[in-house]
Amino acid sequence: MSPICRTFTLEEDAIMENEQADVTEKEPTSEPPKTRKGYSFKLLAMVAVLAAVAAILGTALLTNIVERKQEAKNPFFRVVELTDDTVDPEVWGKNFPLQYDGYKRTVDQTRTRYGGSEAIHKTPKDSDPRSIVAQSRLEEDPRLKTMWDGYAFAVDFREERGHGFMLDDQTFTERQNVTTQPGSCVNCHASAYSAYKRLGNGDIFKGFDVLNKMPYVEARKEVSHPVSCLDCHDSASMALRITRPAFITGIKAFKASQGIKDFDVNRDATRQEMRSFVCGQCHVEYYFKGPEKTLTFPWQNGLKIENIVAYYDEVKHKDWTHKRTGAEVLKAQHPEFEMFNQGIHARAGVACADCHMPYKREGALKISDHHVRSPLLNISQSCQTCHKAEESELKFRAEAIQTRTFEMRNLAMNALMDLINELQKAKDSGRPDGELAAARDFQRKAQFYLDFVEAENSMGFHAPGEAVRILGESINFTRLGLMALSGVQPAHSPVPPTPAKGE
What we know:
Helix content: 40-55%
CATH topology of the domain at 85-108 and 138-300 and 351-385: Flavocytochrome C3, Chain A, domain 2
CATH architecture of the domain at 85-108 and 138-300 and 351-385: Orthogonal Bundle
CATH class of the domain at 85-108 and 138-300 and 351-385: Mainly Alpha
Structural class: mainly alpha
Distance between the termini: 90 Å
């Protein structure tokens, strides 16, 4: 028994029972009227207070809902009027501050395992006022100098930085010191739409032709900003639009190869397609056609690498003659759009913006994140909206794909070095060009296939199976090139079957 409890005797219990009985007899059977009235008043007052609180909360909730609905209906306030001459993104930012805040962050430099840019400090000078650049890929992998020997990329090639740097990095690259770059380069490194209209008297195709024909140093004077809001959005409706003539022409040719005639991208594309097409205006393989240096996307036969090589062979295009071997070779650019279209995400209907500019909530607003960057830096928004796995697991899967691609890339690179070295020895020994022709053609193919993956900025993630297949073909072309130098005939067909047009 607890020490707090008291033990009563039987006598004490009896006394207590009698006292309780007396109290019970003396107490009234009901409350006095005054007491009942006070209790009822308190109860009514409490109910009234609760009702008032509920009313206030309900009113606040309804007000919030109405405000949010109104906010959603009016996604921006028209502070300034925008036109097709409004190039400066800061002006657009007055109407769209949330999107502009994201755009400004494209100057962030964050390195991922197989991409991204590291901030490297340098001493500014008159010819190059930049105090920070990205890491040199040539220093990271000197084999690239051998692959591109005789071409400007063997002089300066750095990891890509964000959109905020794209114009400065093109303007001040050391490649400008060893070659005369065409005005065509402006098409992807600057906000060029307004310049097209001005130079073409309202006709962007005519302005495009004028800009292409200029040397880069002259074309640079016609632009003032890197890619801007104007390049992807209609200034009146804010709808997505294509402003680059090269893409308009290229996608029309590609659709024609699929049997779709007279495709007008701004008329016929779906909104989800446009969320990839606006990126495909620049993140593509291209070449400069003819003496006019017209920026051209080689999609007449399709988007696969076999289609592109077949096109280059048809038009007899070369980017340069390799300094060591004499082979007429090709330089792949940055074929993200082509490679992405061979991958599972594209086939599932995913757009570039879904991963690189994912939707996010700002109050009642649902906006695209304009801080364009690697999905690996924003896994929760970019990946986990579809893939229900932990961030660490998703990052592991992505990097596993990239590691496999990188290892295959290194095997293909080593093989190509062997072919280039043997070709150089044969050339320097005086062997006639006729004996070297086949090996040089295999170098052309092996080099372009390797470079197609090397220059593509996902390290294979956009289309893992396709990337490994392409690198395997590169290794095979190298093998056949070495056999050609040795005079050995392959036992099997050296060239894989060319896919049908539009594949």
